[in-house]
Amino acid sequence: MNPIDLSFYSTFSPPKPFDAKTERQFLHDYSARHATRQQVAAIVGLGICLAYFGVDLLDAINDKQFWPIFTGILR
Q1: What is the pLDDT of residues 24-62, one digit of tens each?
Q2: pLDDT at residue 24 in the model
Q3: SS3 sequence, 7-35?
Q4: CA angle at residue 19 from 12 to 27, to 5 degrees?
Q5: How far apart are CA 21 and CA 74, in angstroms?
Q6: What is the reported pLDDT for 2?
Q7: What is the C-alpha separation between 14 and 22, in angstroms, rounded?
Q8: In this structure, are residues 1 and 9 in contact, taking their beta carbons and an 8 Å threshold?
């Protein structure tokens, strides 16, 4: 193999797996450092979805064509 092929192979090949103890330590450390960020992202995502739902509901309440169809669906 020439040096370019070797460099390409070493760059794009997956890394060697860690031993089980190192992997456990990494996952524990990673989850401890990023748990708050993931919780905040979930809360912000839920807040954005609820905000869009509220805007859509307010838009539907003010639409005169929506309510007859909506009440017809509920019956």
Answers
A1: 999 999 999 999 999 999 999 999 999 999 999 888 888
A2: 94
A3: HHHHHHCCCCCCCHHHHHHHHHHHHHHHH
A4: 85
A5: 57
A6: 58
A7: 17
A8: yes
| Sequence-distant (≥ 6) Cβ neighbours of residue 18 within 8 angstroms | 26
Residue environment code for 35-57, b if the CB has 16+ CB neighbours within 10 A, otherwise e: eeeeeeeeeeeeeeeeeeeeeee
How big is the chain, counted in residues?
A: 75
Q: How far apart are the first and last CA of the chain?
A: 73
Taking the whole predicted model, whether its pTM rises above 0.85 is answered as no
Per DSSP, 39 falls in state H
- Degrees to nearest 5, angle at CA 69 with 67 and 73: 110
Q: Tell me if residue 72 falls in helix, strand or coil.
A: helix
Q: What are phi and psi of 28, to 5 degrees?
A: -65, -45
